[in-house]
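dumping these here so i dont lose them again. two proteins, back to back, each one seq then structure tokens. dont judge the mess
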Amino acid sequence: MTQRISDMLSVHLKELTRKHPPAAPLPSEVTTNALQDWKAKVRLNRGGDIEFAARALGRLEMRGSGSTRLISRDLSGGVNLQGCDLSGLNFRNADFTFTNLQGSNCTGSDFSKATLTSAKLEHSNFSFGNLVDADLSYSEASHSDFSFSNMQGAFLEITNLQHSVLSFCKLESAHFTETDLTGANFDDAELTNVIISNPILDENASFIGTNFFWSRVSLLRPIALLVGHLTTWQHTRRQDRASSSKHAAPPSPPLGDRGTGLVRVRNRMDPLQIRPPRRLHPPPQDRDDAPPSTPP
């Protein structure tokens, strides 16, 4: 019976989406006041039936003898959930393929083993949520908040995480394949045993206090960026301890005109420069004991 109710609500949401299609997409850069105004316009456009049906779907639970089975929730095909309040709900094992969740509030909700492939998640809030083994491949999640969420084993292949917040996030055994991490914040996140393959990084990405134990990165330049951020964090901690003592150490000079915010520590090599390996022995023609060359 519970599964039939779930199927009826899923079909009802798809029919409401045809009557109330998604509003204009969010701009790439938006302020807090503009986002609130956009959410108010979205509520007037779609009405309250979509949010009411989505919240009812998220409250369904199996009871009795079939309590161990999972409810199938099919919200794929571009269901319009823009600006909806979906906080504290259960969407475990749900299908959100191509679903529009722009500006939605999903704080504390359960999206474990959910499929969010190619979903629109810009400016959404998934903080304190459960996204264990969730699939966010090909999704647009720029300017979103995933802080303090559990994303162990999540798939983030070709996912857009530009300027997203993933601080204090549990990302053990997650997969980052060609993920756009431009300006993302991973401060104090757990990235142990993570696979990072061909990511897109810049100097604005923050990894202060991030744990990369047993992680694997496929490219040298992302490794250099991560090492640079970790080196900056270590140097900042040394400066804080030195300033608290009686004889504070002078601050180290910046890296230069590069503008990355990295700092040299004890004349270490610039992590952003890739230098060729040093030749241990000169070639034979440059040595004194080289055999004389015979004329032809």
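---- next one ----
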Amino acid sequence: MEARDDRRARAPRRRLAAATAVAVAAVVVCAGAGQRTTSAAGPHPLPIEQAAGADLATATRGTWAQVAETAPPPPPPPPAVEPAVLRPDAVEVPLDAGWGRRVVYSKGIQRVWLIEEDGHVTATYRVSGRLDQPRYGTYTVWSRSSITCSRTQPDVCMRFMVRFAYSFRGDNIGFHEIPRRRGVPLQDEGQLGAPLSGGCVRQVTADALVMWDWAQIGTTVVVVP
């Protein structure tokens, strides 16, 4: 009896040892596969419906919550400017060219007018500018230099610069004498009236001096077709 009872006692112990070995083997397999177990009390990602009300200041990738507002979209690019159409020369002041004491610059005719407060035209002459800039509108002379040089081409210089606008790239636009590269003019006087400038408004020396004396800081400039 004692021998039979001993065998019965050892059988449950063998079954318990076998179950323990299987459990240990399962843990080893999981560890070898690179998996990680988490206890029931460990952190878990929030469901989407709960994440919607989560505190954004402590949000993590697991909560599905966005930490910062999305930046607004960039503004649309400015509309393209339709270049002026080159037109035959005319000495009459264009219509809708403003009022009061002002400089009127026609891109289509490539001519300027210096007009007094009472409407009297002090001077008018041909120039060389660009057809696509500056934009049409009313400007004010904001800077003057007796001599200056190109920012991108330092060997190109011009005198009697009267600045009133900016180009599409942010460069200054003004009235000035025909530029010179190492003392040689970039165009001759007979080419005035053609849009040959890189952005500014070129004038023969005598006319550049008239503009220099007449258009002080604050002078109105009206750009028309």
